[in-house]
Amino acid sequence: MVPRLHGVRAPRPGRRGPSQATPEEPSTAGLRVIVNGEARSLPSEPGRSLLYALREELGLTGTKYGCGEGECGACTILLDGQPALACQLKVKEVEHRKVTTVEGLSVGGLLNPVQRAFAELGAFQCGYCTPGMVVRATALLAESPRPSRSEICEALEGNLCRCCGYAAIVRAVERAGELAGETSGRR
Fold it and tell me: Where are the alpha helices (DSSP H) in the chain?
């Protein structure tokens, strides 16, 4: 049985987990970060993982703990607009930077095109990988509004789906490109 830590599965011995603080690092209350467009102060230890701070200190649980080693993509966030793995970032590395989680992708309560497409096409099974996939796909569409299937597959390569729902996920990203085009065409 793997113990649980504040709702996050603890890593197996020898693996990096959500809490990366070391005893010699002093607590620096108030590291400033822009999270989902809002200036926030993180009370976390500077060496603690961003994933822990997002989930446990800010209550943003959409970002998931998967492997704790940067291999599964469940913890994907946008850091200054680029995909990054929250389990591999320490809080001190994101000070004064812009962090966007899956919760920050919707605007005014409306889902972004990727979120809408995933819901419309049912591009999830258990849903655990969905936030990371949605964040990664959002970054892809910001760079390439109408990506090819191969570009989609390449962009999502680091995000694992244990349910093997990849075909629906790729279709949802294609649909999101269409939805984004419809939205921008109405302006």
Answer: 50-52, 113-121, 130-143, 149-155, 166-185
154 and 166 Cβ atoms separated by less than 8 Å = no
Beta-strand runs (E) in 2-55: 4-5, 8-9, 31-35, 38-42
Residues 79-129 pLDDT 10s: 999 999 999 999 999 999 999 999 999 989 999 999 999 999 999 999 999
User: Which domains are assigned to the chain?
Assistant: 4-103 (3.10.20.30), 113-185 (1.10.150.120)
Q: Which two tokens stand for residue 166?
A: 């990849």
CB contact at 8 A, 81 and 142: yes
**Rounded-to-integer distance, Cα 46 and Cα 57, Å:** 13
d(CA 56, CA 49): 11
Q: Of the candidates 134, 137, 164, 123, which has an alpha carbon nearest to the alpha carbon of residue 64?
A: 134
Give the residue among 117, 136, 106, 110 at the shortest CA–CA distance from 37.
Answer: 106
Tell me if 180 sits within 8 A of 110, measured CB to CB. no
Sequential DSSP letters for 69-102: SSSS-TTEEEETTEEEEGGG-BGGGGTTSEEE-G
Closest CA to 87 of 79, 100, 75: 75
Burial class (CB in 10 A: 0-12, 13-18, 19+), 157: exposed
